[in-house]
Amino acid sequence: MLSRLSRNSLPRNAIRASSKATRQARRTFVQPSGADRASVVDVPSTYQDDNLYTPRPDMLGFRLETPQREGSVMEKARPIYLDMQATTPVDPRVLDAMLPYFADQYGNPHSRTHAYGWEAEKAVEDARKNVADLIGADPKDIVFTSGATETNNMAIKGVARFHKDKKRHIITTQTEHKCVLDSCRKLQEEGFDVTYLPVQQNGIVDLAELEKAIRPDTSLVSIMTVNNETGVIQPIKEIGALVRKHRGVYFHTDAAQAAGKIPVDVNEANVDLMSISGHKIYGPKGVGAAYVRRRPRVRLEPIINGGGQERGLRSGTLPTALIVGMGEAARIAKLEMARDHARVKELSDRLLKGINSQVDHVIRNGDSSGYAGCVNLSFAYVEGESLLMALKDIALSSGSACTSASLEPSYVLRALGAAEDMAHSSLRFGIGRFTTEAEVDFVVQKLVATVQKLRDMSPLWEMVQEGIDINTIDWSQH
């Protein structure tokens, strides 16, 4: 591979040739998507043995074959992907925009003395505008980061530490992403006071409880826009208006699961800080953005120090290719949001109808009017991990990808009041831009059969079928 060779050992024309070959290979492998799904064509014989400079087809496009019969998924393609809250595939149009900045236009965007730096800087600023347009912001308010986790840390710790001499109280909810909760716990170790608001059974925060929780020494309220496990949409406009009434209190929202999927406007919602992730909107991993309001100015302490890039809030050389990818993903998301949302809603309804018409004792976790692309269901009398293992043809999650390795039931579902057994039996279905009707139908067919099979092996299910109310049984006597 080129990365293993000494750059000095390659003639300059060979490097240029590699760039040319890469662009030609991409054009050969990846068909322009437009409104259609991405597809990969057969590899020409010209490139079969050329592994020095030519990327493999699976590095450049998507293999999205739809299974036609049971057992065909693992034989013909990878499992059907329904885990869009964990990550999304890179849209081919995004990849197309990124490629030149890996090989040709590789300048440092902070180099102001030559054309390489100028063209990289322009690409970054164009991407910044696209991200800003997605959330109704001024481009100057956008700060690029490595992702939503860093942005959440920067917003929460940054505001708290800057105002620590006068204000040492923060408010969040019990259902936030783990990086938000862990940031708050870290601040508690530093002597800050944190209020973790409970949520109602539908997952939505009680505004009256939020109002009561705000104190004279409160510096920040951090409440996510769309929950990553349940799809619950918080009323951020109402929250923003409530927080704005209290002078000196900032409102931060983690919008990693919302931006690009539902309309979000930072000015309408009175948002002071917002976190966005590139790989949640069909962009690359490793890049995100922070919206940090300048008027009125939000003051925060940087968590990364160095060259003072990004208004001094996030030092470090910007990854031009990743930022270009995120910018293009944001542009496409805004352009196609209405169509994507309608399509996702249609597929979500199809999934729910197919499951509910054939399986009893299924509960949807969270508010039913939440984001349609995130469907969290609990299947009574079935253990979630067993269900996941049995559904090897489908890529699903039993909760957040960041915490799914834990055997503990989801803290988000427990906060909603779900019983431990129902929290253990939950599955999250993530539907996105490239999901098809045929894939949803296959998932329904496979899921229904698997749930029935597992229930047939459950003694509890047998008791329920016999009409026994297991809730009345005193298990301590057995």
UniProtKB/TrEMBL annotation:
Enzyme class, broadest EC rank: transferase
Annotated stretches, region: Disordered: 1-37
One of the GO biological process terms: tRNA wobble uridine modification
Keyword Cytoplasm: no
Source species, domain of life: Eukaryota
Stretches with biased composition (Polar residues): 1-11
Residues forming coiled coils: none
Domain Aminotransferase class V: 80-441
A single cellular component GO annotation: L-cysteine desulfurase complex
HAMAP family to which the protein is assigned, alphabetical: Cys_desulf_IscS (MF_00331)
Stated name of the protein: cysteine desulfurase
Organism: Heliocybe sulcata
Taxonomic lineage of the native organism: Eukaryota, Fungi, Dikarya, Basidiomycota, Agaricomycotina
